[in-house]
Amino acid sequence: MKRNILLVLLIVFAATLLQAQSMMVIFREVTPNGTNAQTLELIRMEDPSYPIGSNVPAKNERWLIQAYRDGGDGIISPLDSLGNATGDDLRLTDPVHLKVSQGLYFALQNVWMMAGLRFTPGDDDAQAWPGDKIYIRIFNNTSIAKADKYIVAHSLYTIPATNASLSYVPEFGWDKAGWITFRK
Question: What is the mean pLDDT of residues 134-144?
Answer without folding.
Answer: 92
